[in-house]
Amino acid sequence: MVVTGSSIAEASTTTPASETTERAEPGWIRRWARTDPVRAVAVVLIVAHLVWRAAIATRGSLSNDDFAYIARAAESGLTVDYLLATFAGRTTPAAWLVIWLVSRAAGLVYWPYLVLLLAGQAFLGVTFFRLLRQLCRPGWGLLIPLCVLLFSPLTLEATSWWAAGINILPMQMAMVVALGAQVRYVRTRRPRHLLTLGLSVAVGLLFFEKALLIVPLVFLVTACLFVSGGPFRRVTRTLVRYWPSWLVLMLVSVTYLGFYLSQVGVSQIRSPSAGEVLSFVRQLVGTNIIPGLLGGPWEWVYFGTFSPLAIPDDLLRWLAWAVFLALVVITVRLRPSAIGAWVILAGYVTLVAGMLAATRLDSILAASNGLVPHYVSDVVVVGALCIGVAMLGLVDTADKEPTWRSIWPTAMREPGAAALLTAVALVALALLGLGAAWTGARYGDVWSLRQGRDYLHNAQADLALAPPGTVFFDQPVPDGVLTSFLWPYNMQSRFFSPMEPGPVFVTEAENPSMFDHAGHIRQLRVDGPVTAPGPEPGCGHMLHGGQTVRLPLSDSRFDWPWVVRIGYLSSGESTAVFRLGQATHRFDVGRGLHQIYFELVGAGDSVELTINDPTVTVCVDQITVGNPVPQQ
Question: What range defines the domain where residue 573 resides?
Answer without folding.
Answer: 541-630
